[in-house]
Each structure stands twice: as C-alpha cells, then as structure tokens.
Amino acid sequence: MRKLKLNELGRISVNEFKESEKTPIVVVLDNVRSLHNVGSIFRTSDAFRLEAVYLCGITSTPPHKEIHKTALGAQDSVEWHYFNETTDAVEKLKSEGYLAIGIEQVEGSTDLNTFKPDTELKYAVVFGNEVKGVDQKVINQCDSCIEIPQYGTKHSFNVSVTAGIVLWELAKPWLRKQ
Questions:
Q1: How far apart (Å, rounded) are the C-alpha atoms in residues 126 and 86?
Q2: Angle between helices 35-47 and 159-175 in degrees, nearest 10
C-alpha cells in the first residue's frame, strides 16, 4: 500500500467545480461563531459538491484568514450567501422548493439512521450555534428535524463534526450516482 500524491487524486479545478452538477443540498449556518467551524463546513460542502452555504447572523463570511485556515480554499469553490436573519434564508430556500431540515434535538425528531433522502427533492439543512443550537424561530420554519443518535455522556457534537456526519449521510444517494 502506498499513500497517493495530490496529483494522483484526480480532483477537479475550482472552475470545473463551479460548472459541475451539484448535490441538491444547501447548508444553512444559524449563528455559528467559530471561524474554524465555518471553514470546516465549507470544506465538507466542497467534498460532497453541495450547492451552497448560507451564512446567517453572527456567522462570519469569507474572505477571512481563519476561515481559510480550515477551508483550504473551499470558500472559493462553494457558492455562498450571507443573510442577517436565518429565518430569511430558510424562507427563501423554502420558496424555491427546498425541504428545510433542522439538525437539532427536538420532540419528534427523526433519527439520522432512519432518515432516507428522496433524490427527487432538494434540501436546506440548518446547523446551529455551538452553544444554543438552532434557534427555535428557525425550528418553527423547518419541515422536520434530524438528530444524530449518541451513546455517551455528552449531549452534542461539535457543529463541524455534526455537519460532516449529517451531510455524508444525506449526500450518499447522489454521490453513488457519480
């Protein structure tokens, strides 16, 4: 076994990424405060060729050296938009036919293990603040909420870890087709 060199990985260019067919998922960040988390989520969004990242409220926007530190340039390939209010971002996406899914522990949430994405639909996936989670006003707009099952003593994951887990599971049906 030999570790592959970067030029052997067959990655596409930023321009090719922008022209490529996207996985019909938009990430919505509801007041995510850590620039490193924002950068990491950009990088995950690039890896799964997601449509866009919507940055809302106190969530910082590119260009920023701390976002770049973890995004490693993904902030240049993935389309992004900023909204003062997360509710405005979700309202816009829903008006464009996206199903809004909050990633939060709520009454009646769906276990990630049982959620099956419908490849005929488009999804807006909302991730919340590192301390407060997804705001209740935003939860009220969501069509449903997904929860990651956890078996230890802690009640949550870091938001960038959550995004990696959830986005991988949601994107899989589209990624298998490529």
A1: 9
A2: 10
Contact 21, 171 (CB under 8 A): no
Query: Domain 21-148+157-175 adopts which CATH fold?
Result: Alpha/beta knot (3.40.1280)
- Among 160, 158, 58, 145, residue whose Cα is nearest residue 107: 145
Encode pLDDT of 94-132 as tens digits. 999 999 999 999 999 999 999 999 999 999 999 999 999
Q: What is the pLDDT of residue 178?
A: 67
Average pLDDT over residues 13-25: 96
The two structure tokens encoding residue 164: 């990696």
Give the separation between CA 125 and CA 101, rounded to whole angstroms. Answer: 5
pTM equals 0.96
Phi, psi for residue 61 in degrees, rounded to 5: -120, 155
Helix (H) or strand (E) holding 160: helix 159-175
Scan for tokens 């807006």, then name that residue. 124
Is the four-CA dihedral 40, 23, 48, 15 of positive or negative sign?
Answer: negative
Q: Strand 23-30 relative to strand 50-56: parallel, antiparallel, unpaired?
A: parallel
